[in-house]
Automatic annotation (TrEMBL):
It holds the Pfam family 4HBT_2. GO terms for molecular function: fatty acyl-CoA hydrolase activity. PANTHER family: 4-HYDROXYBENZOYL-COA THIOESTERASE FAMILY MEMBER, LONG-CHAIN ACYL-COA THIOESTERASE FADM. This is Acyl-CoA thioesterase. Transmembrane segments: none annotated. InterPro entries: 4-hydroxybenzoyl-CoA_TE, HotDog_dom_sf.
Length: 141
């Protein structure tokens, strides 16, 4: 089952033509990932970054933009886990507005030690959660 959340397109997201300037989508996508970790996994970014001194930087991202989004649109983001590796997580995130696809993003996050920048194995509690979400995601498709 995907993690679902919404974002309203604000003035700050738009270029002079009144449509979302594509780098702003990446800010929205990152905020969706942050919400997923906080609300679904139970590890908010403060806990990861400040308390544990770990992080989940994006190692790969590939995005298809299907249609423009405009100021005032409400975008629904659906994040689905595609694969769980020893140190990585592969995600598929789709954004749509009123059923119309706006973007599809495939990304890979890596769990790292912030001091060294080196990959770390996922903690057992997070791995169990990801495995459950990944199985549910594959059943939904």
């Amino acid at each position: 089952m995907p993690f679902v959340t919404q974002r309203k397109v604000r003035f700050q997201h738009c270029d002079p033509a009144g449509i979302v300037f594509y780098p702003r989508y990446y800010e929205m996508l990152n905020s969706v990932v942050e919400d997923y970790f906080a609300e679904s996994v139970g590890h908010d970014f403060n806990r990861l970054h400040v308390e544990s001194r770990t992080g989940v930087p994006t190692a790969h991202i590939e995005t298809d933009f299907h249609a423009p989004s405009r100021l005032g649109d409400t975008l629904t983001f659906e994040l689905t886990l595609r694969d769980v590796g020893r140190t990585s997580l592969t995600l598929r995130t789709v954004a749509h507005c009123n059923g119309e696809p706006r973007l599809t993003c495939h990304s890979t996050l890596v769990f790292v030690d912030l001091a060294s920048g080196r990959p770390l194995p996922w903690p057992d509690d997070m791995r169990r959660h990801f495995a459950k979400d990944c199985q549910q995601g594959s059943q939904d498709e």
